[in-house]
Amino acid sequence: MNIVYVAGSPRIGGNSDTLAKYFLHCCQQQGATIQHFHLNNLNYRGCQACDACKKGADHCVLKDDLTPVLAAVFAADILVLATPVYYGDVTAQLKGFIDRTYSFLKPGYIAENKPSRFPKRKQLVFILAQGHRNSKLFADILPRYSDIFYWTGFAKTWPLRAVDVYHRGDVDKKEEFFRQAQQLSEQLMSDQNSADNITATDQP
Question: What are the Cα distances from residue 29, in Å, to 5, 34, 68, 175, 186?
Fold first, then answer.
């Protein structure tokens, strides 16, 4: 099982990164192999709206540090994204990556029954850490991006949301989030073993 982890936080060892790495550790104990990419250490541009990936190329034509990340995601079985909430959304680093996944869509994708270039649908884990203690705030982030990810070719977005973790290390004091991460890893790894027949079909 090949898992690619894309870290959206600028801080290695921040709350979202800590929770993601614990989840990945649990998956690794069950036989998964892990690739890590820390976006803040990479030099890349956002999508340039050139549409070259829809006009002759089957991939993003930009050549920068995000090129191998996109290739790894395309080849992966599972993608793990982790980000803190910054001003009501994902980090700018992660948003730049998400915009570049536009290259995973086929030409004419809006009218396609199978809009994604993925040979089969992939699983996606989306880990979100927010400092604000009010769980009603920013609750739209996960479902909003889940719709986009499904369209892009992911079978399901598995959410893991940690609320009221403002300072570095706050998540370490919240045992329930690590328990949820372990349970999610066990469920996902079990389901993934029987998910080989999932194919990239219609968009929602």
Answer: 16, 11, 26, 19, 10
